[in-house]
Write a structure and sequence with these properties.
- With about 120 residues, the chain is mainly alpha-helical.
- It has one domain (about 10-115).
- It contains four helices and no strands.
- The chain has helices at about 10-20, 25-40, 45-55, 80-115.
- The longest helix is centred in the C-terminal third of the chain and has 35 residues, at about 80-115.
- The N and C termini lie far apart (about 40 Å).
Length: about 120
């Protein structure tokens, strides 16, 4: 899981991959993840902040469960595998987004700390 480079391209790739996985399963979250991916792809760290804001609290992305009871998976699908895949894709993107944000904050702090 820690094999992704710390680059905006790597993060946008992870986010687009997660959005594609969510397409047709949760269009609400697919659209939001894709929006964050597009911001990152355009070189805006705000996309990483946006993606991180999708986590925590009730109804957040990390609360999403795929299954027929939620109308986002069919009875015949391997729900454990499907939800494991969702968790893995989300976690990889989350870890990378957090690293991008930390690096951006570090660089911003260094710039502000420079004299004159």
């Amino acid at each position: 899981m820690g094999d992704d480079e710390l680059t905006p391209q790597a993060l946008s790739d992870r986010l687009f991959e997660l959005a594609r996985f969510l397409d047709g399963r949760s269009d609400f979250w697919a659209d939001r993840v894709r929006q964050a991916a597009q911001e990152v792809y355009a070189g805006r760290v705000s996309g990483a902040y946006l993606f991180l804001s999708f986590h925590g609290g009730m109804g957040s992305l990390n609360d999403l469960q795929l299954g027929p009871h939620n109308g986002n998976a069919s009875e015949g699908e391997d729900l454990r595998s499907l939800n494991d895949q969702l968790c893995e894709l989300d976690e990889r993107a989350y870890v990378l987004a957090a690293k991008v944000v930390r690096e951006s904050d570090r660089l911003e702090h260094e710039v502000r700390a420079r004299p004159g």
